[in-house]
Specification:
- This protein has 314 residues and is α/β, with parallel strands linked by helices.
- It has nine helices and 17 strands.
- Helix content is 38%, strand content 24%.
- The strands form five sheets. The protein has a six-stranded mixed β-sheet with strand order 2-1-12-16-17-15. It has a four-stranded mixed β-sheet with strand order 8-4-10-11. It has a three-stranded antiparallel β-sheet with strand order 5-7-6.
- A hairpin with a 2-residue loop joins strand 10 and strand 11.
- Helix 2 crosses helix 3.
- The two termini are 19 Å apart.
Length: 314
């Protein structure tokens, strides 16, 4: 393969295992970095995005436990920024270590990223994204008394959770900064957790209590950076149809039209594989990119050698 500009969006399994400690997440990212450096060894220019759902949830739990009038909890947009910074810090260190081992003279830098959304996005009228801790029905009453603007929804019979909007990204405020990092031959980490949701108010960007889907934000950045290949890494090597049934079939090489047909058949789970499929379709339609890929972190080497995984072409 010739040199390419590659956007890689990491799934949460690349960061957080069953142990939520900083040490465990740093160790997970050291393993993740070993795979990601394969792209650099291959000669590709790389930009990295990542999820942060569990980290934001844990941070909100910590804040809820320690919040006081004098030291109140931070809003969600700020919590996203905080986890963008912490995960970026861990990932920078892990990548720098692997690059040094490979004697590759590149540097990794995190860009805490603001992602502009529309204040008129319909998602703001119908919050659906669960965040934070589970509550009993009685605890919900207390929460709503303290926070009358919060909305709650029962989640999988495990209790009630706060739900927030999940608007679609329109643009990336720091796109040109991220591009300049790549153009200098270095590796940016950006749109962590979908980025910080902001709306434009005159000359100012103003945060919103929302969570942007990481796959859609990564696609938007891949589009703006005009990358050649957009890769979403998840827990499985391929996209499947008839998933979990005896007829389960891995998709290897697939066209946008074929994916759209499978979407019409409801083949992909909402909140799981569906947004990944939608994101790769959007990328292929909006760009001159050569391909989009959905595969696992562990399959990177085989993808680079043999083109395995789910390869999406026009």
């Amino acid at each position: 393969m010739a040199k390419r500009k590659v956007m890689v969006a990491l799934g949460g399994n690349a960061i957080l295992t069953s142990d939520a400690s900083a040490q465990a997440q740093q160790e997970a990212l050291r393993e993740t970095a070993k795979y990601l450096v394969e792209f650099v060894k291959h000669g590709d220019d790389l930009v990295i995005a990542h999820g942060n759902g569990p980290q934001v949830g844990n941070l909100l739990l910590q804040q809820a436990a320690g919040s006081t009038v004098a030291n109140p909890a931070m809003p969600i947009d700020t919590a996203v920024a905080m986890t963008e910074g912490s995960i970026g810090y861990w990932l920078e260190n892990a990548m720098d270590e692997e690059l040094a081992k490979a004697a590759i003279n590149k540097h990794v830098g995190t860009v805490v990223t603001q992602v502009e959304v529309s204040p008129d996005d319909p998602a703001f009228l119908e919050p659906t994204k669960p965040i934070g801790p589970f509550y009993t029905a009685e605890q919900v009453k207390d929460q709503q008394a303290s926070h009358p603007d919060y909305q709650f929804m029962e989640d999988a019979n495990r209790g009630w959770r706060r739900v927030v909007p999940s608007p679609r990204p329109l643009s990336i405020a720091e796109a040109e900064i991220i591009r300049s990092v790549m153009d200098a031959g270095n590796i940016p980490v950006a749109v962590g957790g979908g980025g910080i949701p902001v709306v434009r108010k005159g000359q100012r960007l103003e945060g919103r209590e929302a969570v942007i889907d990481k796959d859609f934000a990564s696609e938007k950045l891949a589009e703006l950076l005009e990358v050649d290949v957009f890769i979403i890494l998840t827990a499985v090597d391929n996209i499947y149809v008839n998933f979990g049934t005896p007829e389960q079939t891995a998709l290897t090489n697939v066209t946008v039209a074929q994916l759209e047909k499978y979407m019409q058949e409801d083949q992909f789970a909402k909140g799981s594989m569906l947004p990944k499929v939608q994101a790769v379709i959007e990328f292929m339609k909006a760009t001159e990119g050569t391909q989009a890929v959905v595969t696992s972190l562990e399959n990177i080497s085989d993808y680079l050698r043999n083109g395995s995984g789910t390869i999406v072409n026009k």
